[in-house]
């Protein structure tokens, strides 16, 4: 299958790597040439590591390299059977992209979004053929995490839902078909994990590292501050803001001033070398 990923960031490159390891042909599109170059280097490097770990044969790696490309031209996505959008969590940016994709792609092409919070109905309203639009939400890191939420919009056809589920399972994922509500399943629950932790820290009842240590002690693999640093403090805040608005300013989804200050300071987590914790480059 020919897969196009729109967005060369953490999620786009992770999904691309997973698809390549399963034998698909993949192109990553991004308007930023530098982002494309970094994504290409990362994916090729990860394919090499997969060979070293015995997860991929040398022959499989060479085939994947030949089937992988990056581009700054949206026209290069026109031949894809499935396009997965993984760009900024902003409705106007996504609408512009999907309108352009619908003009270029075949009527049979499935258009999917990796959004973690925005309504599928709201995203699809810019399309003439909403039946081929579906939510396909991977979790970070996309090539490792097993869960994928498949979200059916009000006009998404059953055929497209079935195809999305089949694709995700082919990648080795566990799928759940979720309702089209802001945040779907996981992010709707997880907002409280992040928000309550930040309230505790802002009230100076505990420091971020203490809160993380407590959460790991009761069974969580990562504490909330560690997880925000991994996801991207800025990305996590955008999701919270999106859900807060979509739930008509529901108090429990109120964004954190603490998180906004970190974003304003450029402390976006691991990807910038510092967030709630410092990281080596």
Tally of extended strands? 8
- Rg, please? 19 Å
The amount of beta strand, in percent, is 5-15%
CATH architecture of the largest domain: 3-Layer(aba) Sandwich
Low-confidence stretches: none
Structural commentary:
This protein is α/β, with parallel strands linked by helices and about 280 residues long. It folds into 2 domains: about 1-180, Rossmann fold, CATH 3.40.50.720; about 190-270, Orthogonal Bundle (N-(1-d-carboxylethyl)-l-norvaline Dehydrogenase, domain 2), CATH 1.10.1040. Helices cover about 45% and strands about 15% of the residues. It has 11 helices and 8 strands. It has helices spanning about 10-20, 35-50, 60-65, 90-105, 120-125, 160-170, 185-200, 210-215, 225-230, 235-245, 255-265; strands spanning about 1-5, 25-30, 70, 80-85, 110-115, 135-140, 145-150, 175-180. It has an 8-stranded mixed β-sheet with strand order 3-2-1-4-5-6-7-8, with helices on both faces. Helix 1 links the parallel strand 1 and strand 2. Helix 1 packs across helix 2 (about 35-50) and helix 2 runs antiparallel to helix 3 (about 60-65). It is globular and about 55 Å long. The model has no long low-confidence stretch (mean pLDDT about 95).
SSE topology sketch:
Elements: E1 2-6, H1 10-21, E2 25-29, H2 33-52, H3 58-66, E3 68-71, E4 82-85, H4 91-104, E5 110-113, H5 120-124, E6 133-138, E7 147-151, H6 158-170, E8 174-178, H7 186-202, H8 208-217, H9 224-231, H10 233-246, H11 257-264
Parallel strand pairs: 1-2, 1-4, 2-3, 4-5, 5-6, 7-8
Antiparallel strand pairs: 6-7
Helix pairs in contact: 1-2, 2-3
